[in-house]
Fold:
Amino acid sequence: MSGSEGRKERLREEQFPQRGAAQNKMLQTASADTKVANARGNAQPASAPGALQAPPLPVFGNQAMLRLQRKCGTGGAAGVRVSNLDFASGPAPREPFPGNQSRVRKARASVSDSSMRMTSQFVGAQPTFSNWGGGVLCKSPPFELTGQISVPSAMANGDLTVGFMQALVGCTGPKGQYWDANDVAYMTAFAPYASLPIRDAEPNGVFYGPEAQKVADSPSVSVSMADQPHSSLSWTTPDKKGKLQRVVGENQFVTWLVVKSDSTGAVDPLRYFAWRIGWSAGVDESQPAGTPFEFGMITDFGEGSGPLAPIRSGPVANDSVLPTQWQPWTE
Structure:
């Protein structure tokens, strides 16, 4: 068995490590319904806001995967494998938010109820690594959300806009690892961002995109968004001495359901998801697709802004990717 075949076989046999303390804490506090339904299907709200219920997770203890995840910078990441995630309807949160507090209170008081639901099979789904001829297209499973707010009839006057905001908060991949003709670790390739965290939005607006916002012109308003991060890696190094055999790294995001007052400019985060996609995979130029070893994960969720406040201004992720950096490395 060649070195590359042996490496791929070892990767294929590796499993995920035991879930960390953060994940155990998440499961202990979880209590909402898990739905196995068609995407965009309707779900009944759970009995408690911000709650989550997940089926038992398989627990593995393979130390080789622990080493791989440490190399990828993903060891110990919390996550829950379920099909759909629901936030039960509930009153608007009362969490403090930076900025003009009187304006925020006014926008927040306008919302009497809110909910947020994942509608795609992101959690527990694996990324894909497709051979397009000149390289590998690394693509996340679809990440799709639906949010809903209720406002008093008197406030359904078009001043409020409900929508999703998003930020990329961490990025270590996809990073390609290349070996030379003697099967010795040779180079890595990675295209970083100019700065992090960075907003993932349209350049001229605060929302994720025009499709991810809706004017609150009725007492109940729903809005949806979809994201599918992707990137490409070439099969060979610029000097043609190295061949791509492994992909590592991760992306970390926070997505908020927010309400914005057009008259005051105040933005109030109602609920959030923190999520990640791991890019660990074995790849082979002779195969149509690579072998993924990680899954989409929700690492945190709840009411308000979560780990950081929504980023309203500044550069956007799509315009801030730096050129691919080629670096020597050793295994």
About this structure: Residues 14-107 have pLDDT under 50 and may be disordered. Residues 3-13 form the longest helix (11 residues). Residues 3-36+58-328 form one domain.
